[in-house]
Design brief:
- One of its GO terms (cellular component) is cytosol.
- GO terms for molecular function: RNA binding.
- The structure is a single chain.
- With about 150 residues, the chain is an all-alpha fold.
- It has one domain: N-utilizing Substance Protein B Homolog, Chain A, CATH 1.10.940.10.
- Helices cover about 70% and strands about 0% of the residues.
- Helix 5 packs antiparallel against helix 6 and helix 5 packs parallel to helix 7.
- The radius of gyration is 15 Å and the shape is globular.
- It starts with 11 loop residues before the first helix and ends with a helix.
Length: about 150
């Protein structure tokens, strides 16, 4: 695992890579319904994971499916269509972002949104990042009220 100096805190780059691989793994899980341990093993075997925050990758990969119903419940009122009608890429990124927003309050909401937007720009349709940004911003308004109040 890539770490920063002395404090065992993962670097931002290592977390970014963990998210990048995790969204691809979640996408694979959504489409194929494959076993998560198998997906994780394949990613570790097929990719250079030396500079990836592997603990975070694992947490997201297993956490999103475990919390899928909760995440979807939070996302559904924030979107203008059924979740099943979204592209699998958008849905994977929104679930990842919602997981971080709801379960990783140590990650600032602006970081969650920015990382999801960047993932969408990389993997999503041309303007999908605007949609993802709006949905996660609305989720932050509902779930990070204390953090938002402190920013004012």
């Amino acid at each position: 695992m890539s770490r920063t100096s002395g404090k065992n805190k993962p670097s931002a780059a290592a977390r970014r890579k963990a998210r990048r691989y995790a969204v691809q793994a979640i996408y694979q899980w959504q489409l194929a319904g494959a076993d998560l341990a198998q997906i994780e093993a394949e990613f570790r075997a097929d990719n250079d994971m030396s500079s990836v925050d592997l603990e975070y990758f694992h947490e997201i990969l297993f956490g999103v499916p475990r919390a899928k119903q909760e995440l979807d419940t939070h996302l559904t009122p924030l979107v203008d269509r059924a979740l099943e009608e979204m592209t699998p890429v958008e849905l994977a990124i929104l679930r990842l972002g919602a997981f971080e927003m709801l379960h990783r309050i140590d990650v600032p909401y602006k970081v969650v949104i920015n990382e999801a937007v960047e993932l969408t720009k990389t993997f999503g349709a041309t303007d999908a990042h605007k949609f993802v940004n709006g949905v996660l911003d609305r989720l932050a308004q509902r779930s990070r009220t204390v953090e938002l109040r402190q920013k004012r």
